[in-house]
Design a protein that fits this description.
This protein has 14 helices and nine strands. The protein is an alpha+beta fold. The chain has three domains: 110 residues, Alpha-Beta Plaits (2-Layer Sandwich); 95 residues, Chitinase A, domain 3 (Roll), CATH 3.10.50; 153 residues, no CATH class. Strands 5, 6, 7, 8 and 9 form a five-stranded antiparallel sheet that branches. The chain has a four-stranded antiparallel sheet with strand order 1-2-4-3. Strand 1 and strand 2 form a beta hairpin. Helix 11 packs across helix 12 and helix 11 crosses helix 14. The longest helix is centred in the middle third of the chain and has 35 residues. It is elongated. The termini are far apart.
Length: 489
């Protein structure tokens, strides 16, 4: 037997195998011993009939072909194991017809995980931006809080910008009714886009009970090409005008907006500032993380088989289906909304799918190069975390491997950040604070006892949370569903 394996630049492996006739004869003997247990030959107990009678019943070529098939399968499995080949899908077999008395050659081509050649990623360096909060940003957030506490009060005066009006509205284009709304609320704004652009200015000055007809021009860039640039004819009747009553930024507002957590406006302002700062730091970490990873991916050399990209695109669509289900929408409904067939949608996912595959392959190679490990305790911690979030995962072997893989990749990203950026000052501060607390707890004059169990548990939990967040972000990174709006006809 002669077996050779060739790795092609197309991320495929070709296994070439040659059998001698003697090897085929031995394989046919094994096939006979297997088949004789399954066939009934008159005059013989099952398993006791001579080969000549089995050949007469089944055919000599059938027995040799059965032996060849078994030998081919066994040889292919051994070749994969010996050469550490990970097939991505079913192989493509090139097997000629068996000729009695002759040696036999066959070949198998199979898509494989591509080898990844990393660049000099340790030479990369990235500056970590400093997060700062301005007073304007804090006031903007406070304004958002005020908007959530707004009270609408009906008034007996002409409508003004920022008022909320309730009205009947009929919109037609070229004698065809496009929209017919009854007692629909609109908050008047100068920044309206889409179908109803230009309407608000016409409503300003109208009073309760008043009717009006007017025309506007639908924007040229409106999504519906049949309506874009056309004249929109309105018939409206105003039922109610409401004034937006925003609360004052005082202590009473602080108590109400924070559900009694903060008693003064200054305490609330400080909390808002801290939250804005935390959000900025998180954004900096995420952007730095993406920047470092993309730089390492750009350095790497690999050839990806299309089957990997197709499988990832299907996985992304599967994740999107779950997101849609949470919004009570089916994938078919979503495809109708975005006006794409399933095949077109999958095709649109392929660029992002290829990017994700490249990142995953690079991170897996980093795991090998940096000898990164994941303990069973870390996997168990992540399983518990999912359960606490109400998303308990099945503890199957496949699921455990998937979780371990996610943790390894998250650790690989952390390792890349350690190698290419300055230490995170917040993480350093937490570490120093932890050490200081530990030192304070030590008795004076006694040698400190080493007990890292709590610290290790915290690291495990932190790693688990990071992996869970990364998984969630990856799911939400798919194309987002389009939300309906009041002017989104």
């Amino acid at each position: 037997m002669k077996v050779s394996v060739e790795t092609l630049p197309s991320s495929e492996a070709v296994v070439n195998v040659d059998f001698s006739w003697e090897e085929l004869e031995k394989a046919s003997d094994k096939a006979y011993r297997k088949l004789v247990q399954k066939v009934d030959i008159q005059g013989f107990r099952r398993g006791k009939a001579p080969r000549s009678l089995v050949e007469r019943k089944l055919g000599k070529e059938y027995i040799y072909q059965e032996g060849l098939d078994d030998l081919m399968s066994e040889t292919y499995r051994e070749a994969l194991k010996e050469h550490k080949i990970v097939p991505l899908t079913q192989p493509e077999l090139d097997a000629p017809v068996l000729e009695m008395g002759q040696p036999y050659h066959f070949s198998i081509k199979v898509p494989i995980l591509p080898p990844v050649e990393l660049g000099d990623y340790r030479s990369l360096h990235f500056e970590r931006p400093v997060a700062e909060v301005t007073s304007e940003e804090v006031e903007q957030e406070l304004e958002k809080l005020r908007e959530r506490q707004v009270r609408w009060e009906e008034v007996e005066r002409p409508a003004q910008m920022r008022d909320r009006v309730t009205m009947d509205l009929k919109l037609s284009v070229e004698d065809a009714t496009v929209s017919d709304l009854k007692e629909n609320p609109f908050e008047l704004t100068e920044e309206r886009h889409g179908l109803f652009k230009g309407m608000d200015e016409q409503i300003v000055g109208m009073q309760k009970g008043e009717s009006k007809t007017f025309s506007t021009t639908i924007p040229e860039d409106y999504a519906n090409e049949k309506l874009a640039g056309k004249t929109a004819n309105y018939e409206v009747r105003l039922h109610k005008v409401e004034f937006k009553n925003l609360p004052e930024l005082d202590d009473a507002f602080a108590i109400q907006a924070s559900n009694d957590e903060y008693q003064t406006i200054e305490d609330l302002r400080k909390a808002v500032s801290d939250q804005v700062l935390d959000n900025k730091k998180r954004k900096i970490r995420d952007e730095l993380r993406d920047k470092v990873l993309q730089a390492v991916v750009d350095q790497a050399q690999m050839t990806i088989h299309p089957v990997l990209i197709e499988e990832e695109a299907h996985e992304m669509m599967h994740q999107m289906t779950h997101i849609l289900e949470q919004q009570r929408m089916s994938m078919d409904q979503y495809l109708m909304l975005i006006k794409k067939s399933q095949a077109e949608y999958l095709e649109s996912l392929k660029p992002d799918a290829e990017k994700r595959v490249r990142q995953q392959l690079v991170l897996d190679e980093i795991v090998k190069k940096e000898d990164i490990q994941v303990s069973p305790e870390e996997v168990e911690s992540l399983l518990r975390l999912y359960a606490q979030m109400g998303q308990a995962l099945p503890r199957t072997e496949q699921e455990v491997r998937s979780i371990a893989s996610s943790l390894l990749r998250e650790k690989a990203i952390s390792r890349l950040l350690e190698l290419t950026t300055e230490p995170d000052p917040d993480e350093e501060a937490v570490e120093q604070e932890t050490k200081a607390e530990a030192n304070e707890q030590e008795a004076p004059g006694q040698e400190a006892e080493t007990d890292t169990s709590d610290e290790e548990a915290a690291k495990v939990e932190e790693g688990a949370k990071a992996a869970a967040v990364a998984a969630a972000e990856q799911e939400s990174g798919s194309e987002e569903p389009v939300e309906a709006t009041e002017d989104g006809a």
